[in-house]
Amino acid sequence: MRVSYNWLKEYIDFNLTPEELAELLTQAGLEVDVIEYPGKGLEDIVIGEIKEITKHPNADKLSVTRVDVGNEELEIVCGAKNIFEGAKVPVAKIGVTLPNGMKIGKVKLRGVASNGMICSEDELGLKEERQAGVMIIDKDCKPGDSFVKIMGLDDAILVLDLTPNYAHCLSMIGVAREVAARIGKPLKKPEIKINETGPLVTELAAVEIKDPDLCPRYTARVIRGVKVGESPEWLKQRLLAAGMRPINNIVDVTNYVLMEMGQPLHAFDYDKVKDHKIIVRRAEDEEKIVTLDEKERQLDSNVLVICDSKEPICIAGVMGGANSEVTEETTTVLLESAYFNPISIRKTARRYGISSEASYRFERGVDIEAVIDASNRAAQLIQELAGGEIATGIIDIYPKPVKLLEIRLRTHRVNEILGTQLTRDEIAEMLNRLGFTTKVVDDDLDVTIPTYRGDVVREVDLIEEVARLYGYDNIPGQLPVGESRVGKLTRSQLLEDQTREFMNAVGFNETQNFSFINPKVYDMINLNPDHEWRNSIKLKNPISEEYAVMRRTLISDLLKVVSFNVKRRMDKIQIFELARVYIPTDDLLPYEPRMLAGAVMGVLENDQWNQNAGGFFYLKGILDAYANKFGLGELIYEKAQHDSFHPGRTALIKAKGEEIGYLGEIHPDVLANYDLKDRVTVFELNFEKIVELSSAERRFTELPKYPALTRDIALLVDEGVSVQSIKEVIRTTGAEYLESVELFDLYHGEQVPQGKKSVAFAMVYRAKDRTLTDEEVNAIIDQLLTRLKDELGAEIRG
């Protein structure tokens, strides 16, 4: 952002030097990179008027001129062909040093004395390329006047490096508002008066917005009978100071208002807009437009365009189309002033490699409530500089007006954070100077945020505004409010670290993935259309479609990592992740529980069970060991169904009666979606539940003094009876003596009836205070078999 020192003075009275102004702005958070002085090195250049031109007696290509420089007339030899008598030119007298380092002295050129130099623009440092002739000054001036003042170069340009949260300062009025607040002077906004004498604008034009999400507001004015031509010198000088190239009076006015008010505008040639209708819509695939830079652009549905009834005439907020450009033949102008979605503009500008003053501001967010003021200001200036008749009224399509945000600001909170002793009224006075509206509520303030301050959304943002205006240098250095304590890990943090250590110790590698995923991932993991995980938090400004929503599960990322490694010829994989997922709530913020998930592939446990179990029992053993280590008790595994898992190879996991997650083999369709051929087994646990249920308490168990008695039983049960339910009956029968129960055989075969299975358990019984007798244990077994038959239909297998 280039801020003209002289231009800024039109909006606020101040006596600061450019250096003092730069310091003030920097203290307010508007960092000044550099101060440029356009007239530096040109202070001694004066205006001269050529009174007489004669041919050089000794050189055909040279002329001898007599130049009036105010207090004297100088004889200067000149080789330029564009001079003429009466021309006003910049003159460097003897002793003057030009910006290029040339020092002017009295010299003889082919025998004729030259007492100075008539300068070209490149010799003055105003243009880089060499000019064919001297600079001719077409301004109202007289000989001897200061060249710098006449050309408007007696200025200082403050180049600001603004961070995105200072979008409200991307205009002269925005910067002036900051200065006014700092020095306590009133802001002088330009008086806007327009003379609407033409027919109703709705009789001349129409506007339709087909995508209000990308264009929440669009306004249009029509000005007839304009005369397009060169802008006046003051306007051209303002634009040059701002780093913009003057084009014609219509376009220059729109650029002037952009720099003055921060609202980009666009002027269409009304007669080139077919049916005089503006349609704001997404482009269609394969549509094309030739933009003002004479480049053909390929469009698609991700690009917002301004169209007439036939075709696109502008890439919204980025660049206009050549087919609706204002030229010298234009007599009627359709003036656009709108608000476009910042994300849409940013993506479009980056896609086409276009960075304009307009797109730069739209990307950061303009003031949606200022679009009409900017349109009126432009209409006023166009009528003053190009004539014409302003149509009555303005077309304003604004389907969902913005509601002003109100934030409660607590006085004590301001002072706690800043370490100050400011009163409520002092805080209110500072915020009022910045344009906020305050209302007293006891000792606090309800602050209404103006629409041009889109960066202020929380109480702490208001506290930052107070700090900026109060002055960071004025904030006393002191210790934070409160008691200093020695920090230590919470139980939850400690368990998190211990969990990572455990998983590493059992051979797992930790992965870390983005919290953002592509919503198409939910299709890849086979979720039903109505699955709750599909209700994910959408990002307003995603990096790309690959990171458009916040994840509800870690499973998809683990499968992505497995697939990545398999493609790099890894055949044995053990990975885990401990991270947060994000669940939408009715509150402002989502619920963000931590989850613990792991995946294995190609890891086969070396025990008596099926070697092709795909890692199910291997992971089950690890989870049981984890539960034992961290005091979760014995985990219960119940048969379950899950969209992402293989039916019949999925278990719901419970700890202390509460569900904590799933263990299962990934569904073959899901494996195919990730280009995986081998079986993958995954678990996912709610780590917040683990923290809640785990116990650090460890009980000492002395070595047994008395011998144990063992019993084995083989049962024939229905296929649907779970091992867990049998174990539960065993545990609750003779519980005071039961030391352990273990499944050691599971059989389906010819000797087992259809729909049945054979299961065998080994039980260990022991008393703490004596030796158990066979009779006592046999009585427990008899009671057990009766219960198993009555409750589960189990029969003893002979």
UniProtKB/TrEMBL annotation:
Primary enzyme class: ligase
Domain TRNA-binding: start-end pairs: 39-148
Subcellular location: Cytoplasm
Binding residues for Mg(2+): D455, D461, E464, E465
GO biological process: phenylalanyl-tRNA aminoacylation
Keyword entries, A-Z: Aminoacyl-tRNA synthetase, ATP-binding, Cytoplasm, Ligase, Magnesium, Metal-binding, Nucleotide-binding, Protein biosynthesis, RNA-binding, tRNA-binding
Gene3D superfamilies: 3.30.56.10, Bira Bifunctional Protein, Domain 2 (3.30.930.10), Ferrodoxin-fold anticodon-binding domain (3.30.70.380), Nucleic acid-binding proteins (2.40.50.140), Phenylalanyl-trna Synthetase, Chain B, domain 3 (3.50.40.10)
One GO cellular component term noted in the UniProt record for this chain: phenylalanine-tRNA ligase complex
Pfam families: B3_4, B5, FDX-ACB, tRNA_bind, tRNA_synthFbeta
Catalytic function, reaction form: tRNA(Phe) + L-phenylalanine + ATP = L-phenylalanyl-tRNA(Phe) + AMP + diphosphate + H(+)
PROSITE patterns linked to this entry: B5, FDX_ACB, TRBD
Ranges that cross the membrane: none
UniProt remark on cofactor binding: Binds 2 magnesium ions per tetramer.
Required co-factors: Mg(2+)
Residue ranges occupied by any B5 domain in the UniProt entry: 402-477
Top-rank lineage group of the source organism: Bacteria
Cited SMART domains: B3_4, B5, FDX-ACB
PANTHER family, per database record: PHENYLALANINE--TRNA LIGASE BETA SUBUNIT, PHENYLALANYL-TRNA SYNTHETASE BETA CHAIN AND LEUCINE-RICH REPEAT-CONTAINING PROTEIN 47
HAMAP family referenced in this protein's UniProt entry, alphabetically: Phe_tRNA_synth_beta1 (MF_00283)
Record's subunit section: Tetramer of two alpha and two beta subunits.
Protein name: Phenylalanine--tRNA ligase beta subunit
Organism: Anoxybacter fermentans
Taxonomic classification: Bacteria, Bacillati, Bacillota, Clostridia, Halanaerobiales
